[in-house]
Amino acid sequence: MPTVFITGATSGIGEACAHLFAKNKFNLILCGRREEKLTKLKSKLSKQTAVHTLQFDVRFKEEVFKAIDSIPENFKDIDVLINNAGNAHGLHSIQEGSLEDWDAMIDGNVKGLLYVSKAILPIMIAKSSGFIVNIGSIAGKEVYPNGNVYCASKFAVNALNKAMRLDLNKHNIRVSGVHPGLVATEFSEVRFKGDTERAEKVYQGYKALQAEDIADIIYFVVSRPYHVNIEDLVVYPTAQASATILNKDEN
Ligand code: NDP
Ligand code: 8X3
C-alpha cells in the first residue's frame, strides 16, 4: 500500500485529505501541533488503514528532522507528500502588520514547507519516485489589499513548486501545486485570532469551497497515471472571480 505524509492534518484541508486517502487505502502519516486532534484522527482512521502520527511544529527545523527521523521502518517508504500546513495571521496593511504575524507566516508557510521537503526528499530520490503536492493559494497568484505577507508567503510556495518541478525532474518525482480560493475551514479563525464571529462572516452569503472539495482535487491530481503531472491547479468557489471579486449576499 502506498504511504502519504500529510502536514496540517489536524483540521480543514489536511484532515479531509486524511479521510479520503484512508478510504483509498493509503497508509497515513499525519502531522500537526495539536496532539489530541492527532490521537482522535488516528483512533478513527486506524479502522480503515495503518496510521502513524507525528506531533511537531513545521517552523522549527530540529523538531521537523527529529520527527521525520523517528518514523518507523514500516511507514518510511513515503510515496506522497502533501505540504499543506500553513495559515494566515492577521489582515493588516503593511504599515500596521505585526512582526510576530510576519514571522509566523514566513516561518510556517515557507520555511516549514522547505524543512519538511528537505527531510523527505532523500527517501523519494533514493527510489526515483514520489509525489509532492504543495498547497498554495490564490493569494500566491494575486496580491490583495492587506494580504501583503500572507500573499508573499504563498507567492513563495508558488515559486518553490515550480523550482521543485525543475530540480526534481531528473529524479522522476512529480510535483503539483493546488491553489484554492475561499475554503470554509479554521483558516479565518486563525487569521482573526479566535474572533469566531468575524471568521464566520467570511464564509456567509455564498457557498464557499469545502475542505472535502480540495481533498477530492488533491486526490485526483495524485491518482493520475504516473506519466501525468498536473503542474498547477487554481480553484475558486463559483461565487468568487478573483481575490477581491465575490458575489456575496450581504443581507
Ligand atoms: P486550517 O486552519 O483548518 O488548517 C491549518 C493546518 O495547518 C492545521 O492542521 C494546523 O495544525 C496546521 N499548521 C498551521 N501552522 C502549523 C505549524 N506551525 N506547524 C505545524 N502545523 C501547522 O486551514 P486550511 O485547512 O484552510 O489550510 C490548509 C492550507 O491551505 C494552508 O496552507 C492554507 O494557507 C491553504 N489555503 C487555505 C485556504 C482557505 O481559504 N481556507 C485557501 C487557500 C489556501 P495545528 O494547529 O494542529 O498545528
Ligand atoms: C486563503 C484564501 O483569499 O483568504 O489562502 O487568501 S485568501
Indicate the radius of gyration in whole angstroms.
17 Å
Number of strands: 9
Unreliable stretches (pLDDT < 50, length at least 5) are: none
Describe the largest sheet.
7 strands, parallel
Strand order within the widest sheet? Answer: 3-2-1-4-5-6-9
CATH architecture: 3-Layer(aba) Sandwich
Mean pLDDT score, rounded?
Answer: 98
Question: Approximately how much beta-strand content do the residues carry?
Answer: 15-25%
Helicity, as a percent range: 40-55%
Distance between the termini: 50 Å
Supply the CATH superfamily name: NAD(P)-binding Rossmann-like Domain
Overall description:
The protein has a single domain (3-235), classed as 3-Layer(aba) Sandwich (Rossmann fold). With 251 residues, the chain is an alpha/beta fold. The chain is 42% helix and 16% strand. The protein contains eight helices and nine strands. The protein starts with a strand and ends in a 16-residue tail after the last strand. It is globular and about 55 Å long. 42% of the residues are buried. Strand 2, helix 2 and strand 3 form a beta-alpha-beta unit. The mean pLDDT is 98. The longest helix is centred in the middle third of the chain and has 29 residues, at 99-127. Helix 3 (61-69) runs parallel beside helix 4 (99-127). The strands form two sheets. Strands 3-2-1-4-5-6-9 form a seven-stranded parallel beta sheet, sandwiched between helices. A two-stranded parallel ribbon has the order 7-8. The protein binds NADPH dihydro-nicotinamide-adenine-dinucleotide phosphate and 2-hydroxyethylsulfonic acid. 2-hydroxyethylsulfonic acid binds at residues 137-139, 147, 182, 243.
